Amino acid sequence: MLRCEEEKQIAELSCEKLFVHYSDVNSGFHEAEAEEGTMDDADWWAGEPPLLIHSIDPDKFFSNVMQDLKGVDSLRVLDMEWVVQGDFRIRVETLLAAARARGVEVVFQTR
Predict the structure, then answer these.
(1) Could you state, in order of their start, the residue ranges of all structural domains in the chain?
(2) Which residues pair with 77 in a beta bridge?
(3) What is the pLDDT of residue 48?
(4) Which residues lie across from 8 on neighbouring strands?
(5) What is the pLDDT of residue 85?
(6) Is 70 exceeded by the pLDDT of residue 110?
(7) Non-local CB neighbours of 42 within 8 Å, separated by 6+ positions
(8) pTM, whole model, 2 decimals?
(9) Is 5 helix (H, G, I), strand (E, B) or coil?
(10) Looking at residue 20, what DSSP letter applies?
(11) Closest CA to 61 of 106, 104, 105, 24
(12) Three-class SS of residue 79?
């Protein structure tokens, strides 16, 4: 969520929502294998087309999040209790460090 307060661009980043999207990216659900065989030797579900949803890799996902924060003066981080898992935690901490390096004020907030 992005909004303006006085002259500042303020963004809110929900770690809960970020975790859900990150889990979707890593689920493997987005990948499908092509079906093989003929209709004569197929089971009842054969003939369904492969899943055509394409996913981005986690690096690209977090790169896109960082790009979305471009021009933000202050970042309010919500739901930090969701940042407990290894790889996800590292990625979020790296994202926040990169935001700070850009001069963004990072504020942790509870709801």
Answers:
(1) 2-28+55-108
(2) 13, 108
(3) 62
(4) 5
(5) 75
(6) yes
(7) none
(8) 0.70
(9) strand
(10) H
(11) 24
(12) coil
- Domain 2-28+55-108 coded CATH 2.30.230: no
Q: What is the mean pLDDT of residues 76-100?
A: 92
In the block, tokens 């940042």 appear at 83
CA distance 76 to 88: 18
List the structure tokens of 9. Answer: 């661009």
Nearest Cα to 77, choosing from 92, 58, 61, 94?
Answer: 92
State the average pLDDT over residues 16-38. Answer: 72
Determine the pLDDT at residue 58. Answer: 84
C-beta atoms surrounding 83 within 10 Å: 18
What the block records as the tokens of 45 is 């579900």
What 8-state DSSP symbol labels residue 35?
A: P
Q: Hey, what are 70's tokens? A: 């471009």
